[in-house]
Write a structure and sequence with these properties.
13-stranded mixed β-sheet
Length: about 220
């Protein structure tokens, strides 16, 4: 009997350790999700709306902070105007000019728009015009969690090396992108601000590109 107990002890110990091991939900460490993009363009102007859930204030330091919903509107015009105002869903106001990007910008808290299409009214040069912007999502596009899971599975060793005592020592960024199709940027940021960046096909979940960015 004593021999049996001695032989069984290592097995029992292993089972106990396995039971105590924490299963980490890495999705809890996503500090930025760009969930949708709305677009309109013609020969005269371009409108982009980004919907996000984002750490506020945002800081790529490997530590997730408090999250909030955010709507960002970008408008590109053929010529500059002193005043450009926009109204889209629950957000409206005068836009700020960004010289570097040569566009007008306004942001507000919350998800200002929803659905496949929404109307945006621009006012400048003494006139107002309403445009219909459309979501870029089509077919069976992954959501942000789905894109993140692709990287979590593919980079299992990376995530394991950044996890201590059931705590992930980093944060994850997931941003929907659009360029004649939907893609996701997924970044894994450690406490030294080093980022492993991936480009993921938005429909198939296939990793298209990978690069390292040093903070």
């Amino acid at each position: 009997m004593k021999k049996f107990i001695l032989l069984a002890l290592p097995l029992l110990l292993a089972c106990c350790l396995a039971g105590c091991k924490k299963n980490v939900n890495y999705l809890d460490y996503v500090s930025e999700k760009r969930t949708d993009i709305y677009l309109y363009s013609d020969d005269k102007l371009e409108i982009k709306i980004y919907l996000s859930e984002k750490e506020t204030p945002f800081c790529a330091d490997g530590i997730k902070g408090a999250m909030g919903e955010l709507t960002e509107i970008y408008v590109t015009l053929p010529e500059n105007h002193e005043e450009v105002s926009v109204s889209a869903g629950s957000i409206e106001g005068e836009m700020n000019y960004r010289a570097v990007e040569n566009c007008y910008y306004l942001s507000g808290s919350g998800a200002a728009v929803s659905g496949e299409n929404t109307e945006v009214t621009l006012t400048y040069g003494g006139e107002s015009q309403t445009y219909t912007v459309s979501s870029v999502k089509y077919g069976k596009i992954l959501d942000c969690d789905g894109a993140a899971k692709c990287i979590i599975e593919h980079e299992a060793d990376t995530f394991a090396s950044m996890t201590e005592n059931g705590v992930f020592k980093g944060e994850i960024f997931v941003r929907l992108l659009y360029d004649e199709g939907c893609y996701y940027y997924v970044g894994i940021c450690d406490r030294q601000k080093k980022i492993e960046a991936f480009l993921v096909d938005g429909e198939k979940g296939k990793i298209i590109a990978h690069k390292q960015i040093n903070g």
